[in-house]
Amino acid sequence: MSRFEIYSPEGLRVDGRRWNELRRFDCSINTHSHAADGSSYLEQGNNKIITLVKGPKEPSLRSQMDPTKALLKVSVNITKFSKTERSKTSHKNERRVLEIQTALTRTFNKNVMLHIYPRTLIDIEIHVLQQDGGLVGTLINGITLALIDAGIAMFDYISGVSVGLYDTTPLLEVNSLEENVMSSVTLGVVGKTEKLSLLLVEDKIPLDRLESVLAIGIAGAHRVRELMDSELRKRAEKRVANSTN
Amino acid sequence: MSSIISIAKRKGAFQQSIDAGFESGSEDEDVNMSDSIDNGPTHTQESNSTEGHIVTPGELVTDDPVWMRGHGTYFLDNMTYSSVAGTVSRVNRLLSVVPLRSRYTPETGDHVVGRIAEVGNKRWRVDIGGKQHAVLMLGSVNLPGGILRRKSESDELQMRSFLKEGDLLNAEVQSLFQDGSASLHTRSLKYGKLRNGQFCQVPCSLIVRSKNHTHNLPGNVTVVLGVNGYIWLRKTSKMDMARDAPSGISAPGPSNGAPIGAKTLRSSDSVSITRLEEESSWQIYSDENDPTISVSLRQTISRYANVIKALAFCEIDITHERIVSAYEASMVYPSVGSLIDREVMETIGQDVLTAEKMRGTPS
User: Fold this and answer.
1) pTM for the whole thing?
2) Which CATH code fits B102-194?
3) Out of A37, A153, A242, whose CB is closest to B83?
4) Locate the Exoribonuclease phosphorolytic domain: which residues (chain A) (predicted)?
């Protein structure tokens, strides 16, 4: 196999995007209305995920009950068939998956108004059907949509996006080919602000390049927020039109 | 493939430094922002405190500090923001955002349907589809036979003979606790254990609070529309007939070949209401279904359950009139099971809405 060009001199990436282009973004909410309080299906490029939010509900264990606030639980199920090659082992207790779960829990603990749901449990379940790089960003978007669908109060949208750094060029939303050959960061941006609720740096990245990476990342995340917002408004208008009161 | 989603360069100091370090991208002006997705109304400065306006989390609702902040909002630097996706509601000076979908929030006086989740110390814990289980105290239920006395220790020991785990009941919210959970009571003969029917669940936002939540439907079926979105469909009992009797039973809508007309039963109903109450109150905790429920009645009940599912699928508010109207619309489909096909559900929803428009009845 010949080595492919990650970033051509003409400014094109392996999948034909330019440095500042997002992948296809298709989302829908309330996809599993019987199974959960809030649900979303998200396709971000070739990432395809289902998110279910159950709760706020009575915790099944007494130990999960906090008299002052709700408990947020995130579980990520990466299916064996999600990559190009079927994995032999389950990803359930993989260190990386556990790390992702912790990162997501921490991100949303700050953003969801847990104090108004005392003695309850909010259970977030994500199923990754297909993955193609920048997974954590996609997971953040999926959770945001599902939480809003469930009517759970939160301060703002959190939109996730990954940015790679190829030589000196920041590449917005890396796919798995790009992710494997360059260092990348994942951002969770709060609403329309430039505040980050997550900055996940898993590789080494030159500090003097970080600013340009963050700048395009934040701009990309704002665009993702707009895309999610327009989908939510579309749903809301349909619902309002049907209601009588 | 869909349109290109490219990110325009931002203005501002933060961006300047990128241009210095990175130039090759800046000549691609032709592709920037070439996608056609409408960003919706931009709402940065204007205040969105108008009634019924749709807002999403983090959106500025108003910058006017005179408003009191209700549910679904938060306050930051003299600005009120929305914390949920929903519509703005104003009551006097109180500004709140009503979410489009959320778990049921109990309010005093609500008629709810619930399921016993746990039998505890002098109380039952009832799942009413809310954020937390509600409690039903032993002291707030009727004893069989309607005997009025203090509940003794022996009553405490036989709590499971009244209501056990998994039993369905309808009840009223008596009061609310500090944390928002509810305390229920069943101190009326219209509340209590549910029998002779089928359970059905819809989002609670689709049920509108009204004076009456128990309705007799054509076809000898009674529906209990719990405010929490839990619905119970059952065979119309003598009690249900008697409840409607003083005002006279009006079978809503034309009775187009309903298997058993509701009116026929009423003529045979000569027992006085008080007598009925006495009779029925002995079996209020019975687990036995009425043995005379016919196959056709079972089918009618399933048909009602499926049209309610269809209404919920179309996100149409569920009212007595709409259930009847949807039931009539469903009659063109002979098979009850076919009613939950996606296309059929959509057609029924459309039929209900058009029928309403034709009649011009504001529901």
Assistant:
1) 0.83
2) 2.40.50.140
3) A153
4) 21-152, 156-219
